[in-house]
Design goal:
Layout (H helix, E strand, L loop, with lengths): L4 E5 L6 H15 L7 E5 L5 H8 L5 E4 L17 H6 L4 E4 L2 H6 L4 H13 L3 E6 L3 H5 L3 H13 L11 E4 L13 H19 L1 H6 L2 E4 L4 H8 L6 E4 L6 H12 L6
Parallel strand pairs: 1-2, 1-8, 2-3, 3-4, 4-5, 5-6, 6-7, 7-8
Helix pairs in contact: 1-2, 1-11, 5-7, 10-11
The chain binds 1,3-dihydroxyacetonephosphate (13P).
The site of 1,3-dihydroxyacetonephosphate has 14 residues, from strand 8.
Length: about 260
């Protein structure tokens, strides 16, 4: 059985005092459910160390929002390598978020390098994939998603990919308040699992965690997480509000799928 995972992507939000208050609330509120759901927060790079310190022994993991495509130390101003993230104890990192793809020209080839760098140092990559509204409307979205996955995975063996997590985030649902319906999201998750089974084998496809992201809130989390192929969520705006985020984590923890 796949354990539910809820990841909060803080994007470019947070300040020292705000972070202390949010983490303080989360640690208290999540403590009764932390056995039933894995919880991860991804603050901006500059606050990773602060948040790791605040979360020490709280049973909540810390992740980065991105990583450098360059593997080794060097003249790469502004970059942060996977080795540096591992050095400060980061256990997960997002890669290929649609905001990185659109605002920083992260192509599939760049994303493949980032994914490989993370895997090499033992950080679990959360590969974000998803179609635009135009691609959904013209019906090419399944191919778009399959290509994003196979391009990112290219050259890696099933063993090497065993720590990868996927996050389906339709671009039209991110920050828009327009969530994919549970049926729409489930259909894409099932498609992804089927595509992975045929390309990488059913053992891999059954084991891989696939999150849904895009306007997940306390009000829609139950329905989304009760879908058979949705293993949790990647949460943006609602991750900044402790009561909302906790309620979303609770929905994952109490999903009928968790027994
Ligand atoms: P929202 O939950 O704000 O729609 O953001 C989703 C997202 O992009 C998480 O990575």
């Amino acid at each position: 059985m796949r354990k539910a995972l809820v990841a909060g992507n803080w994007k470019m939000h947070g300040r020292i005092t705000q972070n202390i208050n949010l983490i303080d609330d989360l640690v208290k509120q999540l403590s009764p459910i932390k056995e039933s759901v894995s919880v991860l927060v991804c603050p901006p790079l500059v606050y990773l160390n602060q948040v790791s310190g605040l979360l020490a022994e709280a049973g909540i993991e810390v992740g980065a929002q991105d990583v450098s495509r360059f593997e080794k130390d060097g003249a790469h101003t502004g970059d942060c390598s996977a080795e540096m993230l591992a050095d400060i104890g980061v256990s997960y990192a997002l890669v290929g978020h649609s905001e990185r793809r659109s605002e920083h020209q992260d192509t599939d080839a760049v994303i493949a390098l980032k994914l490989k760098n993370l895997l090499q140092v033992g950080i679990k990559p959360i590969l974000c994939i998803g179609e635009s509204l135009e691609q959904r409307e013209e019906g090419t979205f399944e191919k778009v998603i399959a290509d994003q996955i196979s391009n990112a995975f290219s050259g890696l063996s099933v063993e090497e990919l065993s720590n990868v997590i996927l996050a389906y985030e339709p671009i039209w649902a991110i920050g828009t308040g327009k969530t994919a319906s549970p049926d729409q999201a489930q259909a894409v998750h099932a498609y992804i699992r089927q595509m992975l089974a045929s390309d990488y084998g059913s053992e891999f496809s059954e084991k891989v965690t696939i999150l849904y992201g895009g306007s997940v809130k306390a009000a829609n989390a139950d329905q989304l997480f009760s879908q058979p192929d949705i293993d949790g969520g990647l949460i943006g705006g609602a991750a900044l509000v402790s009561e909302e985020f906790t309620a979303i984590c609770r929905a994952a923890a109490t999903s009928p799928k968790n027994g």
